[in-house]
Specification:
The structure is a single chain. This protein has 201 residues and is of the alpha+beta class. The chain has one domain. The chain is 25% helix and 21% strand. It contains six helices and nine strands, in the order E-E-H-E-H-E-E-H-H-E-E-E-H-H-E. A six-stranded mixed sheet has the order 3-7-6-5-1-9. Strands 2-4-8 form a three-stranded antiparallel sheet. It is globular, with a radius of gyration of 16 Å. The C terminus is likely disordered.
Length: 201
């Protein structure tokens, strides 16, 4: 495997949808135990993050897919955690057609050419290889969005001391309805920015 490598933009504020009951929403050990799209169970620490607000909202919609429950019906709702990562993080590109092809994934990701979704079982071995190469994660089209328009990151911390830094935790009403108040300004200003610059890898 020869991934296309991108460097994440330093200082970008990533978003994580979190259960209010979680003690540490930025703890990557949970995914290490239970697995996720880009890492199998009982593997390596991984923190799953959203690049922007639309992608974070799509995660909730995807979670409740097939359920009669609407996001507004949730008792406590989900918090939104804003966080930054350590500087100079090089990750595998799973956004561009070139990057997806280099990872052995269909250029139509997160769906196959026949329209079926690309499953975790396909992505997990890719994540393992990317991790083995020493890259710090997979920067990908979000599978929570049907057309892959969302952007998400599976971040692989370099060491146990490499951690995401908490910026703020927002209650459900503060982030689910961002059209009112200061949060509208916050999100609109950040959605116009890009989170990475491309490099050869």
């Amino acid at each position: 495997m020869n991934p296309v490598v991108v460097r994440l933009r330093d200082g970008h504020e990533w978003l994580r949808v979190a259960d209010p009951a979680w003690v540490d929403a930025l703890d990557p050990s949970y995914a290490a135990e239970w697995g996720g799209r880009w890492n199998p169970p009982n593997s390596f620490p991984t923190l799953y993050l959203n690049e922007d607000l639309p992608t974070a909202r799509a995660q909730i919609v995807k979670l409740l897919e097939g359920s009669p429950v609407e996001p507004e019906d949730l008792d406590a709702g989900f918090e939104l955690v804003r966080a930054t990562l350590p500087r100079s993080q090089d990750v595998a590109d799973a956004l561009s057609e070139e990057g997806l092809s280099a990872l052995g994934l269909p250029e139509t990701y997160p769906r196959h050419p026949n329209g079926l979704p690309v499953r975790h079982q396909t992505c997990q071995p890719v994540g393992e290889e990317v991790h083995a190469l020493g890259l710090r994660g997979v920067y990908a089209r979000s599978a929570a969005t049907f057309d892959g328009s969302g952007r998400e990151l599976a971040w692989f911390p370099a060491t146990a001391s490499s951690k995401a830094s908490l910026v703020e935790r927002l209650g459900f009403a503060e982030w689910w309805y961002p059209e009112g108040g200061a949060q509208a300004e916050f999100f609109s200003s950040r959605q116009a920015s890009h989170s990475s610059t491309r490099s050869n890898g």
